[in-house]
Amino acid sequence: MRHDHITSAKQLSRDDVEAVLDRAGEIAADQEAYADRHDGSLLGLLFFEPSTRTKMSFSAAIKRLGGGVVDMGPVDSSSVKKGESLADTVRVVEGYADALVLRHPSEGAAKMASQFVDVPLINAGDGAGQHPTQTLLDLYTIRESAGLDGISIGIMGDLKYGRTVHSMAHALTNFDVSQHFISPESLKLPRNVRYDLHQEGASVKEHTDIESILPSLDVLYVTRIQRERFPDESEYRKVAGEYRIDAAMLESARDDLTVMHPLPRVDEIADDVDETSHAHYFQQAHNGVPVRMALLDMLLGGDR
Amino acid sequence: MTDQQLRVSKIRNGTVIDHIPSGQALNVLAILGIDGTGGDVVSIGMNVPSERLGRKDVVKVEDRELSQSELDVLSLVAPDATINIIREYDVTEKHRVDRPERVTGVLRCPNRNCITTEGEPVDSEFEVLDDGIRCVYCDTIIRDDIASHILV
Predict the structure, then answer these.
(1) Which of A106, A191, A192 sits opposite B115 (nearest CB)?
(2) How far is A3 from chain B (nearest CA, A)?
(3) pLDDT digit string (tens) for A108-142?
């Protein structure tokens, strides 16, 4: 892979994506073979926002490659609390680690931080911007279950602020995929993502309800609609209720529909979906480890 | 001396920026970072009658020859501006402004959640699109009223 930093899914070509997914497949098939591949390597974790899955799976990934982590810990107990700039923080921490993983509440944080360091920097979420490693594990999951060409994907929920959605939409332009975006009017895709999809000539349709499009989908990617995006509780409840799926609703879907979710979910996927063959979201979360192992292996010089 | 000359007199050496859309002269100065504190002698004509534009603004900066890269940024607010470099009262060079590929440090990103608005040691930077500009950090696209985002 030719990139030093992974800040946006936009930078990933089809070849890049396939190289990571192929490596992830090899790792998943024989994890032991990679067990001391990066013995002694240290991954710097800089999470300025809470994270469970992303942080834990990066930790698991580097440890399963034989390395370890140095963790900034919560912002409240770090130098950030004293007013240190992000640019200074990453310049200090790059001296402690062989690669950095950054989550930050501001859009563009990873791109900016990457300009100040020489070690590879991975964006683990920048505000409402991008979350490229989530996309890589999402694509891995889709490839395993439905293949990545000649499919229709529905992406539903908070498309405006959902960084996993933005990264996914960009990455899917590399493949022969029809993208259907399903959301309330107020949470439609932002202008910059629409612009890119248009520039790429992507096949894109927008919908305000799920029922009409559900039967034609191969994959349904559900995201959480957050309470804070709405002026009042009743409006939120009304909208959230319309973008919720349950097992009864999925009876109109194809038998092989893959339902995904970046997690955590609140109630946008009812518990009764968990027992159906459509539910892939827990496997999706598990795939975070081999995919992040593959990415780290490549960024840390796995071909040496 | 004609009325026209009285309003915007000739300069001996420097740069004349002509054919600025009416009302944009102060934005042109803001983009160029000229606010009077640098000691430059600056003349501004606003709403000057123009055959081509009806009304136009004109800016004259004495004893300073502005570079093409400085001036290209003006294309964002004054795409039809013409640039005259004056030496000993004569126009020695005449240029149009070209749209630059990038604009750095001139505009503020309107996205309040963009990292460039948070006191980090980076300049704002925008990619110039056919029909607007785009923050290279947070991807926000600005299509209308670019002048309102000038850093002053």
Answers:
(1) A106
(2) 17
(3) 999 999 999 999 999 999 999 999 999 999 999 99
Q: What pLDDT is attached to residue B149?
A: 93
ipTM of the complex: 0.93
Residue type, B121: P
Chain A residues whose CB is inside 8 A of the B130 CB are: none
B102-149: CATH number: 2.30.30.20
Q: Are strands A121-126 and A99-104 parallel, antiparallel or unpaired?
A: parallel
Nearest to A259 by CA among A201, A294, A247, A267: A247
Tokens standing for residue B13: 């050496």
CB-based burial of residue A284 (10 Å sphere; 0-12 exposed, 13-18 middle, 19+ buried)? buried
Is residue A223 a contact partner of residue A158, using CB atoms and an 8 Å limit?
yes
Question: CA-CA distance, A58 to A71, in Å (whole number)?
Answer: 11
Structural domains in chain A, sorted by start: 9-130+288-299 (3.40.50.1370), 133-285 (3.40.50.1370)
CATH 2.30.30.20 residue ranges for chain B: 102-149
Residue A292 is among the residues annotated as catalytic for this protein: no
Both tokens assigned to A98: 């062989």
Distance of CA A75 to CAs A42, A90, B79, B137, B139, Å? 20, 14, 46, 23, 26
B3-96 architecture in CATH?
2-Layer Sandwich (3.30)
Chain B residue at shortest CA distance from A110: B137
Of A86, A193, A195, the CB nearest to B120: A86
Residue B112, SS3? coil
CB atoms within 10 A of CB B53: 15
Q: pTM, whole model, 2 decimals?
A: 0.91
Give chain B's contact residues with A (Cβ, < 8 Å).
111, 113-116, 118-122, 129, 134-141
Query: Within a 10 A sphere around the Cβ of A257, how many other Cβ atoms?
Result: 22
Whose CA is closest to A127, among B66, B62, B115? Answer: B115
CATH 3.30.70.140, chain B: domain bounds: 3-96
| Beta strands per DSSP E along A172-241 | 177-182, 203-207, 219-222
Question: Which residues, other chains included, contact B11 with Cβ-Cβ below 8 Å and sequence gap of 6+?
Answer: B43, B60, B62, B86, B89
Q: Quick one: tokens of A67?
A: 């390395």
Interface test with A, best of B118, B139, B141 (most A CBs within 10 A): B139
A35 token code pair:
């067990």
Q: What is the pLDDT of residue B1?
A: 43
